[in-house]
Design goal:
The complex is a heterodimer of chains A (about 350) and B (about 325).
Chain A (H helix, E strand, L loop, with lengths): L1 H5 L1 H4 L8 H20 L3 H24 L1 H35 L5 H5 L14 H32 L4 H13 L4 H16 L6 H26 L2 H9 L4 H28 L4 H6 L18 H10 L14 H30 L7
Chain B lengths: L10 H6 L1 H36 L17 H37 L2 H16 L2 H26 L17 H25 L3 H9 L4 H30 L2 H6 L2 E2 L11 E2 L2 H8 L5 H37 L1
Helix pairs in contact in B: 2-11, 3-4, 3-6, 3-8, 4-6, 5-6, 6-8, 7-8, 8-11, 10-11
The chains are: A mainly alpha (about 350), B mainly alpha (about 325).
Chain lengths: ~350, ~325
């Protein structure tokens, strides 16, 4: 034992000390800041340069002391961490922008009026858009959930291993990839065929969203039903309960938490869809509660519309931005908050109804 | 029949209670019907787009605009633009998506990995119209100096031929936004296949003295290759059909060109539809639907290949 313990000093590679990354980081920051100050760069450029220096310098040091393999390893580690840091930037930047530019304009007035008769720098509101979003999304849910749920039941309880089930599973996967605007065009051509080329109404949007939602519902429900232990089914069969009652009374209640979570997530996915609604439901300044007639504004289309036609900068105002942009940011904030709340609800439901595994 | 869930109650029981057997039949039929309805809906997408799109192939040439004589002349540049912008987005997204996936599966401390995965999912939850707003108003402002620099110093590359757009709203900006939007999909799928690498393969590599990167290069990446490719294809499918980020970020026209920092850049099919649907006559509407059909067929093929690759990978894993 002793002989072995002495020998490694010649076998082991030299290693960088534990504090090496810290030293290199400080040095890189110092060099970056110095260069940046000399050349008069902004803070963003300094941070970028320092990061780049760090990513390169640590492997270089390691190359000299530890050899090629360790240096490559350190380089890749740095690159992976660096990539992660870079990816966080757009998310934080976007959220910050939406909150900073949107929050001042989200007032009670903004939430409780429509855009009817609003012109120039009048404030206007999004009530009609919220109403439209709620109606269209609800209608889509009403169409998509029963179909999606029954399909999942078919796939798990009835069609297991059959050819039809395989085809359905595959096509549901492919359906996930339908571009949203194509779903919109499908709904449009369906309606146009029956009601003439100028027909626009909320129901078209609901059909398009349902088409986008169904595959998500099928997949999540399928996964949840698969988790239900067969023991439960067998116990129910042994008591002489027919299969359909077993599914409704035993299988579904066991899986209900996960299914509801999946449905809420599917809703949060489609509630932000813009293109299909733009094509089918159009834009309207006033409230419209009728799903089947007249154009119906939804929140995403409202944002798009305000962005495309922001209006003129009011005379004498010092604000550089036309009023439409402020409304668009504020509506974007409301939309993001709705999506986040839906996600949160989905998570909470998932937690509460999580199948109890302990006994 | 061997799996528990496809067990049926003994026939004697259901035969004795005719009423319940009827309930069983109705329920089974409606479940099957729902599945068939989905197939029908998918077929319906094709059929209705065909019905409404075919007249668009032979309308008065002035509906195509820009002096195009036939539908194919009209849709050609659009298809080029769609593929071009999507490939740019892939070039932006793939390295970062794979790095983040590796970060979650192999590099991040366990305590950090779960929240990071959640944050990436959050990125996927942001509506596309908000990405468009951000890209058109915020990112484009910040990119102005970069675009000017590219136009000044790298204008010998066809992509950056310029003249640089003064407002920063360029195809380059849109490609960056699209890249951010498709990153979560690629990350999610790659992360799953990375995590499925057999523990023994990794441990064998470690046992041979491999560094962490060598473990990934020798054990993880070869194993995950088909899954990663499938994830990239799915990301491509998403980028091809994305409308708002492209429509809102830059002004475009249906032309073959490579310049991505100029005032106008190649238009995508989706952007073309979104830009023209409002003032569309009945004939133009047919043309737009036909263009949508082309987009659908193209994304369908891409997604089909991706799903096929995933399925093949799963069969390989099952062996």
């Amino acid at each position: 034992m002793n002989a072995v313990a002495v020998a490694p000093s010649t076998l082991a590679h030299p290693r960088l000390p534990r504090w090496a990354p810290l030293v290199v980081a400080v040095a890189a920051l110092a060099v970056g800041a110095l260069l940046g100050l000399i050349l008069g760069w902004g803070p963003v450029a300094i941070v970028l340069l320092s990061g780049l220096l760090y990513v390169v310098a640590l492997p270089a040091w390691s190359r000299v002391l530890e050899g090629r393999r360790a240096a490559t390893d350190r380089l890749m580690t740095n690159l992976v961490w660096g990539a992660f840091a870079v990816v966080c930037v757009p998310l934080l930047w976007l959220l910050w922008n939406v909150v900073q530019k949107g929050a001042p304009h989200v007032t009670v007035h903004f939430l409780t009026t429509s855009m009817r008769g609003v012109f120039g720098s009048m404030e206007g509101g999004i009530l009609h858009a919220i109403q439209g979003t709620v109606i269209v999304t609800l209608a889509a849910t009403v169409i998509a959930v029963p179909i999606g749920l029954m399909t999942a039941i078919y796939l798990i309880e009835y069609g297991r291993g059959s050819r039809l089930a395989k085809v359905i599973t595959f096509l549901v996967d492919v359906m996930t990839g339908i571009p949203s605007i194509v779903a919109g065009l499908f709904a449009l051509s369906l309606l146009v065929l029956f009601f003439g080329p100028a027909f626009r109404a909320g129901i078209g949007g609901a059909i398009a969203l349902a088409l986008l939602m169904t595959p998500t519902v099928v997949r999540s429900a399928e996964e949840m039903l698969r988790l239900v232990p067969s023991d439960l089914r067998e116990a129910s069969f042994a008591l002489g309960v027919p299969k359909w009652r077993t599914i409704l009374k035993v299988v579904m209640p066991t899986a209900i938490g996960g299914i509801v979570t999946g449905v809420v997530l599917a809703i949060s996915r489609v509630i932000g869809e813009t293109a299909p609604l733009l094509v089918t439901a159009g834009y309207n300044d006033s409230m419209n509660g009728n799903l089947f007639s007249g154009r119906m504004t939804t929140l995403p289309v409202y944002i798009f519309n305000q962005y495309k036609t922001p209006g003129a900068v009011p005379l004498g105002a010092h604000a550089a931005d036309p009023p439409g942009y402020a409304r668009a940011w504020a509506a974007a904030l409301v939309l993001i908050v709705i999506v986040m709340i839906l996600n949160l609800i989905a998570r909470i439901i998932g937690k509460i109804f999580a199948p109890k595994t302990g006994r | 029949m061997s799996t528990g869930s496809s067990l049926t109650p003994p026939p004697a029981v259901s035969a004795r209670r005719g009423r319940l057997a009827l309930g069983d039949r109705v329920f089974a039929a409606s479940a099957r019907g729902a599945g068939l309805l989905i197939l029908l809906a998918l077929a319906g997408v094709f059929v209705f787009l065909l019905i409404q799109g075919i007249p668009g192939l032979s309308v008065d040439p002035k509906e195509y605009g820009q002096g195009f004589e036939t539908f194919w002349q009209y849709v050609g540049p659009l298809l080029f633009g769609t593929i071009f912008i999507s490939l740019l987005a892939l070039i932006v997204a793939v390295p970062f998506a794979l790095a983040v996936a590796l970060f979650i599966s192999h590099y991040a401390p366990r305590r950090l990995a779960t929240p990071v995965a959640y944050v990436i999912d959050l990125l996927a939850a942001v509506p596309s119209v908000v990405f468009g707003l951000w890209g058109g108003r915020a990112l484009s402002q910040a990119l102005k100096p970069v675009i000017n620099w590219l136009g000044d110093y790298l204008n010998w590359i066809p992509l950056f031929k310029g003249p640089a757009s003064p407002n920063g709203q360029t195809a380059l900006t849109a490609a960056l936004v699209l890249g951010v939007m498709i990153l979560p999909i690629i990350t999610a799928i790659s992360r799953e296949v990375f995590a499925q690498t057999p523990r023994l393969n990794e441990e064998a590599a470690i046992g041979l003295g491999a560094t962490r990167w060598e473990v990934i290069r020798l054990a993880v990446l070869p194993y995950a290759k088909s899954g990663v490719i499938a994830g990239i294809m799915l990301g491509l499918g998403r980028a091809l059909g994305e409308t708002m980020a492209v429509t809102m970020v830059y002004s475009s026209s249906p032309k073959y060109m490579l310049n991505i920092i100029g005032d106008t850049s190649p238009q995508t099919i989706a952007a073309n539809i979104a830009n023209n649907y409002a003032e569309a006559s009945a004939d133009k509407q047919h043309v737009l639907i036909a263009a949508g059909l082309v987009l659908f067929a193209f994304t369908f093929v891409v997604n089909f290949i991706a799903r096929w690759a995933i399925g093949r990978g799963e069969r390989k894993l099952a062996r």
